[in-house]
Amino acid sequence: MIVHGFHAVGSRIRRNPESISELYVAADRQDPRMRELLGLAEQAGLRPIAVPSQRLDRLGPGRRHQGVVAIAEASLPTLDLATLLDRIEGPARLLVLDGVTDPRNLGACLRVADGAGAHAVVAPKDHASPLTEAAIQTASGAAESIPYIMVTNLARAIDTLQERGVWIVGTDDEAESDIYEADLPDSIAWVLGAEGKGLRRLTRDRCDLLVRIPMAGAVSSLNVAVACGVVLYEGLRRSRPAASRR
After folding, report:
1. Which of 44, 130, 147, 202 is the most buried (most CB within 10 A)?
2. For 182, left (φ over 0), alpha (ψ -120 to 50), or beta?
3. Whole-angstrom Cα distance, residue 151 to residue 125?
4. Domain check: are 101 and 45 in the same one?
5. β-strand partners of 193
6. Which of 72, 93, 115 lies at the terminal end of a domain, its last residue?
7. Domain residues for 150?
């Protein structure tokens, strides 16, 4: 697969350099950002190949490569849910996506989850986007830093989380409490459905708590990645000590 741009390539070098078979850089680009990436590559034992920008254009047609393109394995290191939960120290912060099939939405959700300090993103193997090239690129490096765990049975995975003391909090436009009024637990898995469809009934019925994001304007809902940002950062804000919120 093609990985391009400083964020995505740099993150891949830091976290999984052995997956990169070839690294191409623009011969005419010698700015600090490029020098930093070349330094990372040297530390990782990679040998960049300097080529004209036109060759990079051919490697990634239509892509904004910024002067750096890597040929890498498509697969990333995987982690199962049980192993993840065993590794978490302190309260769990998870994001569960129910039916998000657009890879760019997935990539944006991964980026938000990573920024908010979530431990992982969980999704079903059916009715969900796999970690495609488009998702990885949109994630801007987050695909390498936050686990994306695809489970065979989402309902069973939710049961496992509840057995391990994780509260399942779903978003629903019809919920009685909004996110700012609700009492939120310390250990939490936020569950969001696909834009327009929301949570599937089986998923909604398993939630310990349902909340809505208040909408003050004319539109009735948010893009799923934007909604992820709202709920994850509200959870992060609540988890911080009171003194640090001032």
Report:
1. 147
2. beta
3. 6
4. no
5. 98
6. 72
7. 81-245
**pLDDT tens-digit profile of 176-209?**
999 999 999 999 999 999 877 789 999 999 999 9
User: Per-residue pLDDT tens for 121-169?
Assistant: 999 998 899 988 889 888 888 888 899 999 999 999 999 999 999 999 9
Average pLDDT over residues 71-83: 77
Q: Are 160 and 229 found together in one domain?
A: yes
Tokens coding 27 = 């011969």
- Edge-to-edge strand ranges of the sheet holding 167-171: 148-151, 120-124, 93-98, 188-193, 167-171, 209-212, 177-178
The encoded tokens of residue 63 equal 């892509």
SS3 category, 103: helix
Q: 65 and 116 share a domain? A: no
Give buried/exposed letters for 211-231 (b at 16+ CB in 10 A, else e).
bbbeeeeeeeebebbebbbbb
Count the residues in the chain. 246
Boundary residue ending a domain (23, 55, 72): 72
Q: Domain tally for the chain?
A: 2
Question: Measured between alpha carbons, how far is 163 from 127 in angstroms, rounded to an integer?
Answer: 25
Average pLDDT for 65-83: 81
Type of residue at 44: A
Are residues 231 and 110 part of one domain? yes
Backbone CA torsion sign across 78, 82, 84, 87: negative
